[in-house]
Amino acid sequence: MNRWNVIIGGVLMNLALGVIYAWSVFVAPFEADFGWTRTEVSVVFTIAILSVGSWFVVAGFLQDRFGPRRVAAAGGILYALGFFLASQTDSLLWLYITFGAIAGAGNGFGYAIPIPVVSKWFPDRRGLAVGLVVGGYGAGSGIYGPLAREVLIPAYGWQGTMQISGAIFLVMTLAAAWLLRNPPEGYKPPTAPAPAAGSASAPAAPAGRDYATAEMVRTPTFYLLWIAYCLGSAAGLMVISQLVPVGTAAGLGAAAGLGLTIGAIGNTGGRVLSGWMSDTFGRLNTLRLMVLLSAVALPVFYVFAGQVVLFYLLLIVIYYCYGTLLSVFASTCADFYGTRNMGVNYGLLFSAWGVAGIVGPVIAGRVYDATGAYEQAFYIAAGLAVVALAALLLARQPGREAAA
User: Fold this and answer.
1) Do 264 and 142 meet the contact criterion of CB atoms below 8 Å apart?
2) pTM for this one?
3) To which H or E segment does residue 43 belong?
4) Per residue in 141-158, is it b (16+ CB within 10 Å) or e — as a string?
5) What is the DSSP letter of 206?
6) At what angle do helices 308-337 and 283-303 cross, to 10 degrees?
7) To the nearest 10°, the Cα dihedral for 113, 81, 101, 181?
8) C-beta neighbour count of 45 within 10 angstroms
9) CA 219 to chain centre
10) Any idea which of 113-117, 188-192, 333-337, 347-351 has the lowest mean pLDDT?
11) What is the mean pLDDT of residues 319-331?
12) How far apart are CA 218 and CA 207, in angstroms?
């Protein structure tokens, strides 16, 4: 099997799954039809993200033991089913269960598979390969958001849009699952680069052995990475979950909807380009730089949100930094702890993203409901990014912790 077929399958899977980031296009229709508050509707996205993070661990466990194809296919079916059932919504509880819990579970099952698979196929270019695959997740919302907002919802309503989406996503995810499989035992890439020098500016060298999950959780670095992943992601998810309402409140009108596409460009770019950067300059160095940039950009973004050009430029920066986390933390986990148990190991690390799905959107929703504006939320998010940076500055590759 050509290993690039795995990249194609991973990108196709994540294009469908990444649509969850475009949730904000449904916020206004639900508010208009049912009169629900911003916080009540935002909880749907929070439940979905928490469900993704929770089921990611289970899916990782299953794929480590039974292979990726069946788990990925089950995820695609659940994801499509969640969209279809959500189209029958007549209560918040039903929406929480269907789009939040069921579609989120399918998303977690599907998203858990490509990252470990491509990490095994591309040990020589792991950062770039993982970046390309998770880049599809970032691009999905950029394609779907404007299409749903400007074409599908006006023509078919939110109900028809969810039904059409579910059918398309079912086909995409099942085709992707067929392409995803692990390499044969003892696989070596066609070309193997010389080992990088072990300097602070060099790429992180693979750990040299596969850590069992019990071993991984006994290393201090795991907890530092988890904290940084959680708090850094919370800042990005806060913006993603409220993008259209934030732009609308700033007076941008329809231009706010285009922010979904602009943001997706940054998100995808961060996943791919920072993946390549981490191969060249080191995983931790890349993460530290992007978290610092995010801390600076978040409050500046709010100050200039009413100026459309600056709104788009700063949005690209924020999404780029966020996309970096989803790409480079996965490669870091593979380098530091090996790939044999990566399904579970990265699943545990990825649970930080699930918690971030609670922290970020809830901060935004509650601040808005309490003050009628988002200003304080952006300063809080910047503070979270600073704490994430501190954790990354303390992190060391396992095996070097004692020496450090």
Assistant:
1) yes
2) 0.79
3) helix 38-66
4) bbbbbbbbbeebbeeeeb
5) P
6) 160
7) -10
8) 27
9) 24
10) 188-192
11) 93
12) 15
Q: What angle is formed at CA 35 by the lines to CA 363 and CA 84, rounded to 5 degrees?
A: 85
Nearest Cα to Cα of residue 50 among 351, 344, 330, 363: 351
> What is the per-residue DSSP string for 210-264?
PPPHHHHTTSHHHHHHHHHHHHHHHHHHHHHHTHHHHHHHTT-TTHHHHHHHHHH
User: Do the Cβ atoms of 25 and 153 come closer than 8 Å?
Assistant: yes
Residues 220 and 312: their CA atoms lie apart, in Å, by: 38
CB-CB contact of 121 with 106 (8 Å):
no
Instruction: Determine the straight-line distance between the first and last CA of the chain, rounded to whole angstroms.
Output: 42
- CB 287 within 8 Å of CB 390: no
Question: Can you tell me the distance from the alpha carbon of 298 to that of 369, in angstroms, rounded to the nearest whole number?
Answer: 20
Q: Average pLDDT for residues 156-173, to the nearest whole number? A: 95
Nearest to 136 by CA among 254, 32, 250, 272: 272
Closest-CA residue to 168 (of 12, 330, 402, 343) = 12
| Summary mean pLDDT of the chain | 86
Residue type, 317: V
Query: Residue 259: exposed, middle, or buried by beta-carbon count in 10 A (0-12, 13-18, 19+)?
Result: buried
Helix (H, G, I), strand (E, B), or coil: what is residue 188? coil
DSSP 150: I
Dist CA 23 CA 33 (whole Å): 16
Please provide the DSSP assignment of 92-125 as one string.
HHHHIIIIIIIIHHHHHHHHTTHHHHHHHH-SSS
Mean local confidence (pLDDT), 373-389:
88
Q: Which two tokens stand for residue 38?
A: 């911003």
All structural domains of the chain, each given as residue ranges with its CATH number in brackets, are 3-184+213-394 (1.20.1250.20)
**Distances from the Cα of 278 to the Cα of 203, 342, 347, 388, angstroms:** 6, 19, 21, 18
What is the C-alpha to C-alpha distance for residues 174 and 75, in angstroms, rounded to an integer? 9
